């Protein structure tokens, strides 16, 4: 059988190539034991590349046509880089950009992270045929094929999701997306506008598409509730199984702030790390203008007093941590600071959208977080809370035939046993976060990994070289607690 050894190499270089090949083949064999023995189908090609050389791997590099040689070298390099990066992104680390302010001041808009998929074990791709390095779209089109698809499977990792972990996951309510209005999510749109209107009004909502689990958009939040626990929120304080838990150090709430008319300086806002986009001036005194704010102040439960000759001065609306609030209270020109009280106007509809029982973002629950093997009785209340888990995440049909009569997969049932663990995620920026309070639980098969390294941070509100690059945040390990 003809062989194609690499010509022109010294004995020392050939020895080094074989040592390197032995290391790579051994590591790949260990990977196959971890990821699945079917990966062994690629092992003979590695062995041949480094040892037997039965395939002419250098055909394009040795082609007599110089143009073919040049293009061949370029093609080999591109294929190798794309294959290696795709392999690393799939099983080990993946780049991720923070898209929203839901975790400020922990993670900021413009932070770029590497997500460690080994933290909880990498998930085997469910849609294996896809354009490399593209998530769900490329060039304005879908970047993957729905079939063939693989069942959920997670490789062994270093640990499990724990309370207060920062977790990257696929957006659960992103299984169905209105392309022209992806935010708020499809289910919130249906609750607000009606399902028929969302499907028929393509001018406003665009096409409605379904996305498999691993092709749904990525979110990052803090895990607050674990499988099998009861979560409740009372006046912004989270309770787990009836006991108050410690709040994250950087937890923010929205506040109303009154000054004597002195504006908050840009230097002060930069010192506190408050984005310009998050600061609103709700009231500014104009001489000769009389504005009655008593109704608004009463509704928001604010104890703001008029200032002699200056109306109510200046009233701001902005997010603050407890530490930032205490810092501002030391400024002599700041007269009062009051927390924003949730109402239907300020907090919107919360999950479950079909269960109208007066919950808000600040006063929520108690709600049971499903655990694999846990059983719940089927009632109108539990069906409203867990129907999406049963239908969308665990793939069963659920029908109500009569009052109190339910069919699961066509069979009458009075209870349901969950097949997966679920988690309850919150943002640290509690009043500016679209999280589990609005779209429900995160199933275990949606978990991607844990943020590990913050390698770049860009502030789009400042010139690139005049505060636009947050040098102090770069190349920092993220501990996630």
TrEMBL record:
This is Signal peptidase I. CDD domains: S26_SPase_I. Gene3D superfamilies: Umud Fragment, subunit A. The chain crosses the membrane at residues 21-47, 67-93. One of its GO terms (biological process) is signal peptide processing. One of its GO terms (molecular function) is signal peptidase activity. It catalyses: Cleavage of hydrophobic, N-terminal signal or leader sequences from secreted and periplasmic proteins. Belongs to the peptidase S26 family. It comes from the Bacteria. SUPFAM superfamilies: LexA/Signal peptidase. GO terms for cellular component: membrane. Its EC number is 3.4.21.89. Keywords: Hydrolase, Membrane, Transmembrane, Transmembrane helix. InterPro entries: LexA/Signal_pep-like_sf, Pept_S26A_signal_pept_1, Pept_S26A_signal_pept_1_CS, Peptidase_S26. It comes from Porphyromonas catoniae F0037. Residues 77-254, 420-455 form the Peptidase S26 domain. It is an enzyme of class 3 (hydrolase). The active site is at 102, 221.
